[in-house]
Amino acid sequence: MTISQTAGNVCTISGLNTNRQTTANSADSKVISLPGTECVIKSQAYLSSFTSYRVGGAAQWYAAPRNLVALSASIEYAKEHNLPVTILGAGSNLLVSDQGIPGLVIATRHFRSKHFDLQTGQLTVAAGESIPNLAWEAAELGWEGLEWAVGIPGTVGGAVVMNAGAHSSCIAEMLVSAEILTPNGTLETITPADLGYKYRTSLLQGGDRIVTQATFQLRPGADPAKVKAITKQHKQHRLSTQPYNFPSCGSVFRNPKPYAAGWLIEQAGLKGYQIGGAQVAQLHANFIVNRGGAKASDIFYLINHIQREVQERWAIWLEPEVKMIGEFQPGY
Predict the structure, then answer these.
(1) Residues of the chain with pLDDT > 90: what percent?
(2) Strand partners, 150
(3) Which of 46, 47, 155, 224 sits a CA distance of 20 to 30 A from 326?
């Protein structure tokens, strides 16, 4: 089994008997109920509904556990059936192939819990919580530190894995610890020092550990009206400078310092360039939007075209920030 996601031992969950699964068959799909949980595994679940691009083929198998027992049962099923595992959060920084994803896709978006500790100023949240929602909730309470994150279209788990950031701030600066589930079913608590954080990446990317929750250090005690005003300013800035009228994944490329990827793409004359239903956004050139009816391959080929054009003009190869999963055929 392989896992793609984006300390002290707390507990180990094992001994799940997946030989007693119940299976329901239909003409097009199967539904497997995992014993001891309310979780089911479905076959051929189309992922376009679960990604912000609104593209992508089917997961061979799909599960959406709501707690650690169900998550561990899902992983145990994958182990027993020798299935690769892909972890899916909000699907906001993801491009899923038209051919879909083999193995088991596990969505953590239903992992929901949060606790604001007034004594420590720490916020502990489950991996499936929405980052923008947390920013607004913190602002309502007068807790500073998350104002910048109001425009990050993702979940806590994905934000920890990719070191999400905006407005010169990032997750690495505020993370106290993260709880991860290891391949052997053990929960461990790790700190930022364990994650090798760099610009929009960490050691968790491409690994086999799954983020289940995280604790952030915030600053309580501020005037809620002031914090909400700053949060609103950040949100308005995002809305005025980035395209939200069509589906997208957010920024497509990492910024190759000292340049901004969007500026390089714009200078290459690519604003508005379109392949199929995928277009370089007119408002911000580091966004590719689905204008309607786009396929994952359209977006993939447009990414390749941008890379070649910027390389030819600036001798800079743009590295994608968006994570691409599944099989893609090169060339256009």
Answers:
(1) 82
(2) none
(3) 155
Residue of 89, 34, 74, 39 lying closest to 214 (CA atoms):
89
What count of other Cβ atoms lies within 10 Å of the Cβ of residue 189? 16
CATH class of 245-325: alpha beta
Provide the annotated active-site residues: 200, 251, 321
Residues 148-173 pLDDT 10s = 999 998 899 999 999 999 988 999 99
Average pLDDT over residues 41-55: 95
Closest to 309 in 3D by CA, of 198, 275, 135 = 275
Helix (H, G, I), strand (E, B) or coil at 210: strand
Residues 6+ apart with CB under 8 A from 15: none
CB-CB neighbours of 191 under 10 Å: 12
Rounded Cα distance between 323 and 101, Å, is 13
Q: What is the CATH number of domain 3-107?
A: 3.30.43.10
CATH ID of 114-239, from 3.30.559.70, 3.40.1170.60, 3.40.50.300, 3.30.465.10: 3.30.465.10
Report CA 177 to chain centroid distance, whole Å. 18
- The encoded tokens of residue 300 equal 């993939």
The confidence score (pLDDT) of residue 25 equals: 52
